[in-house]
Design brief:
The longest helix is centred in the first third of the chain and has 26 residues. This protein has a single domain, classed as Rossmann fold. The protein has 434 residues and is an alpha/beta fold.
Length: 434
Protein backbone atom coordinates (compact mmCIF):
# COMPACT_ATOMS: atom_id res chain seq x y z
CA UNK A 1 0.00 0.00 0.00
CA UNK A 2 2.81 2.41 0.82
CA UNK A 3 4.44 1.87 -2.58
CA UNK A 4 1.10 2.38 -4.32
CA UNK A 5 0.50 5.59 -2.33
CA UNK A 6 3.94 6.90 -3.26
CA UNK A 7 3.27 6.20 -6.94
CA UNK A 8 -0.07 8.02 -6.69
CA UNK A 9 1.63 10.99 -5.04
CA UNK A 10 4.34 11.16 -7.70
CA UNK A 11 1.74 10.98 -10.45
CA UNK A 12 -0.21 13.82 -8.85
CA UNK A 13 2.93 15.94 -8.49
CA UNK A 14 3.85 15.35 -12.13
CA UNK A 15 0.35 16.30 -13.27
CA UNK A 16 0.43 19.51 -11.18
CA UNK A 17 3.84 20.40 -12.64
CA UNK A 18 2.65 19.89 -16.21
CA UNK A 19 -0.57 21.79 -15.53
CA UNK A 20 1.36 24.71 -14.05
CA UNK A 21 3.76 24.76 -17.00
CA UNK A 22 0.88 24.76 -19.49
CA UNK A 23 -0.98 27.46 -17.58
CA UNK A 24 2.17 29.59 -17.37
CA UNK A 25 2.77 29.19 -21.08
CA UNK A 26 -0.80 30.12 -21.91
CA UNK A 27 -0.88 33.21 -19.70
CA UNK A 28 2.72 34.45 -19.63
CA UNK A 29 4.47 35.34 -22.90
CA UNK A 30 7.81 35.24 -21.07
CA UNK A 31 7.53 31.42 -21.18
CA UNK A 32 6.64 29.55 -24.35
CA UNK A 33 6.73 25.99 -25.58
CA UNK A 34 10.29 25.03 -26.40
CA UNK A 35 12.04 27.27 -23.89
CA UNK A 36 14.93 25.58 -22.11
CA UNK A 37 14.18 24.30 -18.60
CA UNK A 38 16.92 24.55 -15.93
CA UNK A 39 17.95 20.94 -16.63
CA UNK A 40 17.95 21.26 -20.42
CA UNK A 41 20.99 19.72 -22.12
CA UNK A 42 23.64 21.95 -23.66
CA UNK A 43 22.38 22.28 -27.24
CA UNK A 44 18.72 22.74 -26.32
CA UNK A 45 18.60 26.57 -25.95
CA UNK A 46 17.69 28.63 -28.99
CA UNK A 47 20.36 29.93 -31.32
CA UNK A 48 21.44 33.44 -32.24
CA UNK A 49 18.94 34.16 -35.02
CA UNK A 50 15.57 35.81 -34.59
CA UNK A 51 12.80 33.81 -36.21
CA UNK A 52 10.22 34.76 -38.79
CA UNK A 53 7.23 32.63 -39.80
CA UNK A 54 4.93 32.58 -42.80
CA UNK A 55 2.08 30.38 -44.00
CA UNK A 56 2.00 29.33 -47.66
CA UNK A 57 -0.51 27.45 -49.80
CA UNK A 58 0.75 24.94 -52.37
CA UNK A 59 -1.14 22.89 -54.96
CA UNK A 60 0.08 19.51 -56.15
CA UNK A 61 -1.86 19.06 -59.35
CA UNK A 62 -3.29 15.88 -60.86
CA UNK A 63 -2.68 13.52 -57.97
CA UNK A 64 -4.41 10.20 -57.46
CA UNK A 65 -7.65 10.74 -55.52
CA UNK A 66 -7.36 7.44 -53.70
CA UNK A 67 -10.34 8.16 -51.45
CA UNK A 68 -12.58 8.02 -54.51
CA UNK A 69 -10.93 5.11 -56.32
CA UNK A 70 -13.33 2.44 -57.53
CA UNK A 71 -12.49 -1.02 -58.85
CA UNK A 72 -8.93 -0.03 -59.57
CA UNK A 73 -9.86 3.18 -61.35
CA UNK A 74 -7.97 6.12 -59.86
CA UNK A 75 -9.44 9.58 -60.50
CA UNK A 76 -7.20 12.61 -60.18
CA UNK A 77 -7.50 15.78 -58.14
CA UNK A 78 -5.50 18.86 -57.20
CA UNK A 79 -4.03 18.30 -53.76
CA UNK A 80 -3.90 21.51 -51.70
CA UNK A 81 -1.18 21.65 -49.03
CA UNK A 82 -0.68 24.31 -46.39
CA UNK A 83 2.86 24.74 -45.09
CA UNK A 84 4.37 26.78 -42.27
CA UNK A 85 7.84 28.21 -42.86
CA UNK A 86 10.18 29.30 -40.04
CA UNK A 87 13.39 31.07 -41.00
CA UNK A 88 16.16 33.36 -39.71
CA UNK A 89 14.65 36.84 -39.77
CA UNK A 90 15.16 40.50 -39.07
CA UNK A 91 13.04 41.74 -36.17
CA UNK A 92 12.76 45.56 -36.29
CA UNK A 93 13.76 47.47 -33.21
CA UNK A 94 10.80 47.88 -30.88
CA UNK A 95 9.06 44.71 -32.07
CA UNK A 96 8.98 41.39 -30.21
CA UNK A 97 9.26 38.00 -31.89
CA UNK A 98 6.12 36.60 -30.29
CA UNK A 99 3.30 34.82 -32.08
CA UNK A 100 0.03 33.09 -31.26
CA UNK A 101 -0.58 29.83 -33.13
CA UNK A 102 -4.10 28.51 -33.63
CA UNK A 103 -4.83 24.81 -33.78
CA UNK A 104 -7.54 22.32 -32.82
CA UNK A 105 -8.10 19.34 -30.60
CA UNK A 106 -10.41 16.57 -31.69
CA UNK A 107 -11.13 14.85 -34.97
CA UNK A 108 -13.11 15.94 -37.99
CA UNK A 109 -16.55 14.30 -38.20
CA UNK A 110 -16.04 12.38 -34.96
CA UNK A 111 -18.87 13.24 -32.56
CA UNK A 112 -17.02 11.62 -29.64
CA UNK A 113 -14.05 13.96 -30.21
CA UNK A 114 -15.44 17.28 -31.48
CA UNK A 115 -13.07 19.89 -32.86
CA UNK A 116 -12.00 22.32 -30.12
CA UNK A 117 -9.98 25.40 -31.09
CA UNK A 118 -7.01 26.32 -28.92
CA UNK A 119 -4.08 28.70 -29.15
CA UNK A 120 -0.55 28.81 -27.78
CA UNK A 121 2.43 31.13 -27.89
CA UNK A 122 5.63 30.90 -29.87
CA UNK A 123 8.78 32.95 -30.39
CA UNK A 124 8.56 34.13 -34.00
CA UNK A 125 7.43 37.24 -35.87
CA UNK A 126 4.74 36.77 -38.48
CA UNK A 127 5.86 37.78 -42.00
CA UNK A 128 9.21 39.16 -40.82
CA UNK A 129 11.82 40.04 -43.42
CA UNK A 130 14.33 37.21 -43.96
CA UNK A 131 17.88 37.62 -42.72
CA UNK A 132 20.02 37.24 -45.85
CA UNK A 133 23.24 38.45 -44.25
CA UNK A 134 24.72 34.97 -43.90
CA UNK A 135 23.61 33.61 -47.27
CA UNK A 136 21.60 30.42 -47.71
CA UNK A 137 20.52 28.18 -44.84
CA UNK A 138 20.02 24.39 -44.96
CA UNK A 139 16.42 23.24 -45.44
CA UNK A 140 14.52 20.99 -43.03
CA UNK A 141 11.09 19.54 -43.93
CA UNK A 142 8.82 18.28 -41.13
CA UNK A 143 5.98 15.76 -41.47
CA UNK A 144 3.41 15.23 -38.67
CA UNK A 145 1.56 12.15 -37.43
CA UNK A 146 -1.93 10.84 -38.29
CA UNK A 147 -3.79 12.89 -37.40
CA UNK A 148 -1.68 15.95 -36.63
CA UNK A 149 -0.81 19.37 -37.96
CA UNK A 150 2.06 21.51 -39.17
CA UNK A 151 2.10 23.09 -35.68
CA UNK A 152 2.60 19.85 -33.75
CA UNK A 153 6.36 20.31 -33.24
CA UNK A 154 6.79 24.09 -32.90
CA UNK A 155 9.18 23.62 -29.96
CA UNK A 156 11.56 22.08 -32.51
CA UNK A 157 10.75 24.01 -35.70
CA UNK A 158 11.28 27.41 -34.07
CA UNK A 159 14.39 26.17 -32.27
CA UNK A 160 16.03 24.94 -35.46
CA UNK A 161 15.20 28.15 -37.34
CA UNK A 162 16.93 30.13 -34.59
CA UNK A 163 20.04 28.05 -35.25
CA UNK A 164 20.23 28.90 -38.94
CA UNK A 165 17.86 26.60 -40.81
CA UNK A 166 14.81 27.17 -42.99
CA UNK A 167 12.20 24.83 -41.52
CA UNK A 168 9.06 23.87 -43.44
CA UNK A 169 6.25 21.89 -41.77
CA UNK A 170 3.45 20.40 -43.87
CA UNK A 171 -0.27 20.14 -43.18
CA UNK A 172 -0.85 16.82 -44.94
CA UNK A 173 -4.27 17.09 -46.53
CA UNK A 174 -6.78 14.47 -45.30
CA UNK A 175 -4.45 13.70 -42.39
CA UNK A 176 -4.89 16.69 -40.05
CA UNK A 177 -7.17 17.06 -37.04
CA UNK A 178 -9.45 19.26 -39.12
CA UNK A 179 -9.83 17.01 -42.17
CA UNK A 180 -8.86 13.48 -41.07
CA UNK A 181 -10.04 11.07 -43.74
CA UNK A 182 -9.62 7.32 -44.30
CA UNK A 183 -6.11 6.01 -43.81
CA UNK A 184 -5.36 5.18 -47.43
CA UNK A 185 -4.73 8.82 -48.28
CA UNK A 186 -2.01 8.98 -45.62
CA UNK A 187 -0.48 5.69 -46.80
CA UNK A 188 -0.19 6.97 -50.36
CA UNK A 189 0.60 10.63 -49.98
CA UNK A 190 3.16 11.05 -47.19
CA UNK A 191 6.35 10.59 -49.15
CA UNK A 192 4.84 12.17 -52.25
CA UNK A 193 3.86 15.30 -50.31
CA UNK A 194 7.36 15.58 -48.82
CA UNK A 195 9.14 15.31 -52.16
CA UNK A 196 6.71 17.75 -53.78
CA UNK A 197 7.32 20.32 -51.04
CA UNK A 198 11.07 19.86 -51.42
CA UNK A 199 10.78 20.64 -55.14
CA UNK A 200 8.50 23.63 -54.55
CA UNK A 201 10.77 25.15 -51.92
CA UNK A 202 13.77 24.58 -54.19
CA UNK A 203 12.01 26.51 -56.98
CA UNK A 204 10.94 29.35 -54.68
CA UNK A 205 14.48 29.64 -53.32
CA UNK A 206 16.17 30.15 -56.68
CA UNK A 207 18.15 33.34 -56.97
CA UNK A 208 16.32 36.03 -58.88
CA UNK A 209 12.85 34.96 -57.80
CA UNK A 210 10.72 37.57 -56.11
CA UNK A 211 9.67 35.07 -53.47
CA UNK A 212 10.78 35.76 -49.89
CA UNK A 213 12.66 32.42 -49.92
CA UNK A 214 14.84 33.46 -52.87
CA UNK A 215 18.45 33.09 -51.82
CA UNK A 216 17.39 31.96 -48.34
CA UNK A 217 16.87 28.18 -48.39
CA UNK A 218 19.52 25.74 -49.60
CA UNK A 219 17.38 22.87 -50.87
CA UNK A 220 20.50 21.02 -52.04
CA UNK A 221 21.29 20.54 -48.35
CA UNK A 222 18.08 19.12 -46.87
CA UNK A 223 17.08 17.06 -43.84
CA UNK A 224 13.71 15.39 -43.31
CA UNK A 225 12.02 15.06 -39.90
CA UNK A 226 8.93 12.90 -39.44
CA UNK A 227 6.82 11.66 -36.55
CA UNK A 228 4.80 8.42 -36.60
CA UNK A 229 3.18 8.41 -40.07
CA UNK A 230 5.54 11.27 -40.82
CA UNK A 231 8.37 8.90 -39.93
CA UNK A 232 6.85 6.36 -42.33
CA UNK A 233 6.89 9.07 -44.98
CA UNK A 234 10.37 10.50 -44.50
CA UNK A 235 12.03 7.08 -44.49
CA UNK A 236 10.38 6.25 -47.80
CA UNK A 237 11.19 9.66 -49.30
CA UNK A 238 14.83 9.11 -48.32
CA UNK A 239 15.11 5.70 -50.00
CA UNK A 240 13.51 2.99 -47.83
CA UNK A 241 11.11 1.39 -50.30
CA UNK A 242 7.91 -0.18 -49.09
CA UNK A 243 7.92 -3.95 -49.45
CA UNK A 244 6.75 -5.21 -52.85
CA UNK A 245 5.46 -8.28 -51.00
CA UNK A 246 2.78 -6.05 -49.53
CA UNK A 247 1.16 -5.39 -52.88
CA UNK A 248 -2.00 -7.36 -52.14
CA UNK A 249 -2.44 -6.10 -48.58
CA UNK A 250 -1.63 -2.52 -49.66
CA UNK A 251 -4.30 -2.87 -52.32
CA UNK A 252 -6.72 -3.99 -49.62
CA UNK A 253 -5.72 -1.14 -47.28
CA UNK A 254 -6.11 1.36 -50.10
CA UNK A 255 -9.59 0.32 -51.20
CA UNK A 256 -8.53 -1.62 -54.31
CA UNK A 257 -6.21 1.05 -55.68
CA UNK A 258 -2.75 -0.01 -56.80
CA UNK A 259 -1.43 3.55 -56.66
CA UNK A 260 0.93 2.81 -53.76
CA UNK A 261 3.00 0.53 -55.95
CA UNK A 262 4.93 3.61 -57.06
CA UNK A 263 6.60 3.78 -53.62
CA UNK A 264 7.64 0.10 -53.39
CA UNK A 265 11.25 -1.03 -53.53
CA UNK A 266 11.68 -2.29 -57.10
CA UNK A 267 9.27 0.10 -58.81
CA UNK A 268 10.92 2.15 -61.56
CA UNK A 269 9.16 5.34 -60.49
CA UNK A 270 10.36 4.86 -56.92
CA UNK A 271 13.95 4.30 -58.07
CA UNK A 272 13.77 7.45 -60.20
CA UNK A 273 12.57 9.49 -57.21
CA UNK A 274 15.86 9.06 -55.32
CA UNK A 275 16.84 12.58 -54.29
CA UNK A 276 20.49 13.35 -53.58
CA UNK A 277 19.50 16.66 -51.97
CA UNK A 278 18.35 14.75 -48.88
CA UNK A 279 21.39 14.52 -46.60
CA UNK A 280 19.91 13.33 -43.29
CA UNK A 281 16.71 12.01 -41.70
CA UNK A 282 15.22 12.17 -38.20
CA UNK A 283 12.45 9.60 -37.68
CA UNK A 284 10.44 9.89 -34.46
CA UNK A 285 8.52 6.68 -33.71
CA UNK A 286 8.13 5.69 -37.39
CA UNK A 287 5.12 3.50 -38.10
CA UNK A 288 4.86 0.43 -40.30
CA UNK A 289 7.37 -2.28 -39.43
CA UNK A 290 4.89 -4.35 -37.43
CA UNK A 291 2.54 -4.27 -40.44
CA UNK A 292 5.18 -5.57 -42.83
CA UNK A 293 5.59 -2.23 -44.59
CA UNK A 294 9.35 -2.76 -44.81
CA UNK A 295 11.51 -5.79 -45.42
CA UNK A 296 15.28 -6.25 -45.51
CA UNK A 297 15.51 -5.30 -49.19
CA UNK A 298 13.53 -2.10 -48.77
CA UNK A 299 15.44 -0.93 -45.70
CA UNK A 300 18.74 -1.38 -47.53
CA UNK A 301 17.68 1.54 -49.69
CA UNK A 302 18.08 3.95 -46.77
CA UNK A 303 21.63 5.22 -47.14
CA UNK A 304 21.61 8.69 -45.60
CA UNK A 305 22.51 9.28 -41.93
CA UNK A 306 19.42 8.71 -39.79
CA UNK A 307 18.50 9.45 -36.19
CA UNK A 308 15.67 7.29 -34.86
CA UNK A 309 13.88 8.39 -31.67
CA UNK A 310 11.59 6.01 -29.80
CA UNK A 311 9.98 4.98 -26.55
CA UNK A 312 10.73 1.38 -25.60
CA UNK A 313 7.06 0.89 -24.67
CA UNK A 314 5.68 2.31 -27.92
CA UNK A 315 2.24 0.74 -28.34
CA UNK A 316 1.49 2.31 -31.74
CA UNK A 317 4.59 1.71 -33.86
CA UNK A 318 6.10 -1.00 -31.68
CA UNK A 319 9.66 -1.04 -30.42
CA UNK A 320 11.56 -4.35 -30.60
CA UNK A 321 9.65 -5.52 -33.68
CA UNK A 322 8.90 -1.98 -34.81
CA UNK A 323 11.20 1.04 -34.59
CA UNK A 324 14.25 -0.85 -33.35
CA UNK A 325 13.79 -3.42 -36.11
CA UNK A 326 13.84 -0.61 -38.70
CA UNK A 327 17.02 0.76 -37.11
CA UNK A 328 18.66 -2.67 -37.22
CA UNK A 329 17.53 -3.36 -40.78
CA UNK A 330 18.78 -0.10 -42.30
CA UNK A 331 22.22 -1.64 -42.73
CA UNK A 332 23.45 0.83 -45.36
CA UNK A 333 22.89 3.94 -43.23
CA UNK A 334 25.02 5.53 -40.53
CA UNK A 335 22.31 5.50 -37.88
CA UNK A 336 21.48 6.25 -34.27
CA UNK A 337 18.63 5.10 -32.04
CA UNK A 338 17.75 7.35 -29.09
CA UNK A 339 15.40 5.53 -26.72
CA UNK A 340 13.32 6.99 -23.90
CA UNK A 341 12.92 4.23 -21.35
CA UNK A 342 9.31 3.65 -20.26
CA UNK A 343 7.99 6.06 -22.91
CA UNK A 344 5.26 5.13 -25.33
CA UNK A 345 4.54 6.78 -28.69
CA UNK A 346 4.45 10.51 -27.91
CA UNK A 347 8.19 11.20 -27.98
CA UNK A 348 7.91 14.01 -30.54
CA UNK A 349 5.00 16.48 -30.09
CA UNK A 350 4.55 19.70 -28.17
CA UNK A 351 3.32 19.33 -24.56
CA UNK A 352 -0.41 18.86 -24.01
CA UNK A 353 -2.24 22.13 -24.70
CA UNK A 354 -4.11 23.84 -21.89
CA UNK A 355 -7.41 23.10 -23.64
CA UNK A 356 -6.82 19.37 -23.16
CA UNK A 357 -6.89 19.78 -19.36
CA UNK A 358 -10.39 21.22 -19.21
CA UNK A 359 -13.29 19.29 -17.74
CA UNK A 360 -15.37 17.55 -20.35
CA UNK A 361 -12.61 17.32 -22.93
CA UNK A 362 -11.92 13.78 -24.09
CA UNK A 363 -9.02 12.01 -22.37
CA UNK A 364 -7.79 11.20 -25.87
CA UNK A 365 -7.04 14.86 -26.54
CA UNK A 366 -4.65 15.03 -23.59
CA UNK A 367 -3.09 11.67 -24.37
CA UNK A 368 -2.50 12.53 -28.00
CA UNK A 369 0.33 14.69 -26.62
CA UNK A 370 1.26 13.36 -23.17
CA UNK A 371 3.59 10.61 -22.00
CA UNK A 372 2.76 8.56 -18.87
CA UNK A 373 6.31 8.45 -17.45
CA UNK A 374 7.95 11.56 -18.86
CA UNK A 375 7.47 15.31 -18.64
CA UNK A 376 6.89 16.40 -22.24
CA UNK A 377 8.79 19.67 -21.71
CA UNK A 378 11.80 17.58 -20.72
CA UNK A 379 11.42 15.38 -23.82
CA UNK A 380 11.21 18.52 -25.98
CA UNK A 381 14.49 19.86 -24.59
CA UNK A 382 16.28 16.53 -25.06
CA UNK A 383 15.00 16.29 -28.64
CA UNK A 384 16.21 19.83 -29.35
CA UNK A 385 19.65 18.87 -28.08
CA UNK A 386 20.06 15.69 -30.10
CA UNK A 387 18.47 16.96 -33.31
CA UNK A 388 20.65 20.08 -33.13
CA UNK A 389 23.74 17.87 -32.83
CA UNK A 390 22.64 15.50 -35.58
CA UNK A 391 21.63 18.01 -38.27
CA UNK A 392 24.54 20.22 -37.24
CA UNK A 393 26.95 17.43 -38.14
CA UNK A 394 25.35 16.41 -41.43
CA UNK A 395 24.02 19.72 -42.77
CA UNK A 396 26.56 22.18 -41.36
CA UNK A 397 29.61 19.99 -40.72
CA UNK A 398 29.76 21.19 -37.13
CA UNK A 399 32.03 19.45 -34.64
CA UNK A 400 29.18 17.99 -32.57
CA UNK A 401 30.26 14.33 -32.61
CA UNK A 402 31.01 14.40 -28.88
CA UNK A 403 27.27 14.77 -28.22
CA UNK A 404 26.55 11.53 -30.08
CA UNK A 405 29.64 9.53 -29.15
CA UNK A 406 28.22 8.45 -25.80
CA UNK A 407 28.02 5.41 -23.51
CA UNK A 408 24.99 3.40 -24.60
CA UNK A 409 23.14 3.69 -21.29
CA UNK A 410 22.84 7.10 -19.65
CA UNK A 411 22.30 5.53 -16.22
CA UNK A 412 25.79 3.99 -16.33
CA UNK A 413 27.77 7.17 -16.89
CA UNK A 414 26.99 10.85 -17.41
CA UNK A 415 26.47 11.98 -20.98
CA UNK A 416 28.37 14.86 -22.59
CA UNK A 417 26.12 17.91 -22.80
CA UNK A 418 23.92 16.92 -19.85
CA UNK A 419 24.13 18.59 -16.46
CA UNK A 420 25.22 16.37 -13.54
CA UNK A 421 22.56 13.89 -12.39
CA UNK A 422 20.20 14.68 -15.31
CA UNK A 423 21.08 12.02 -17.90
CA UNK A 424 18.83 9.19 -16.75
CA UNK A 425 16.38 6.87 -18.45
CA UNK A 426 17.95 7.22 -21.89
CA UNK A 427 19.76 4.91 -24.28
CA UNK A 428 21.68 5.79 -27.45
CA UNK A 429 22.77 3.13 -29.90
CA UNK A 430 24.92 3.67 -32.99
CA UNK A 431 25.50 1.48 -36.01
CA UNK A 432 27.61 2.14 -39.09
CA UNK A 433 26.92 0.92 -42.65
CA UNK A 434 27.90 -2.68 -43.36
Amino acid sequence: MKLFAIKQLLTAIAFIFITNCITAQANDPSFVIGDALPDAPELSPRGDYKVGVRTLELVHKKQVDILNSKAGADPLYDRHLKIEVWYPAIVPQGQTALITYNSTLGLWKDTSRPLIPFSFNGRALRDAAPDLSAGKFPLIIVSHGYPGSRLLLTYLTENLASKGYVVVAIDHTESTYGDRSPFQSTLLNRAKDILFVLNEVADMSKAGNKHFLAGLADADNTALIGYSMGGYGVLNAAGAGYSSKLDSSFTQMTGGSKALRVRTTNNDEFKASHDARIKAVVAFAPWGMQRGVWDAEGLQGLKVPTLFVAGNLDDVSGYEDGIKAIYEGAVNANRYLLTYENARHNVAPNPPPAASLKAGVSFNEYYHYAEPSWNEYRINNINQHFVTAFVGIYLKQKDYNKYLDLPEHSNDKGWTGFKPRTATGLELQHAVPH
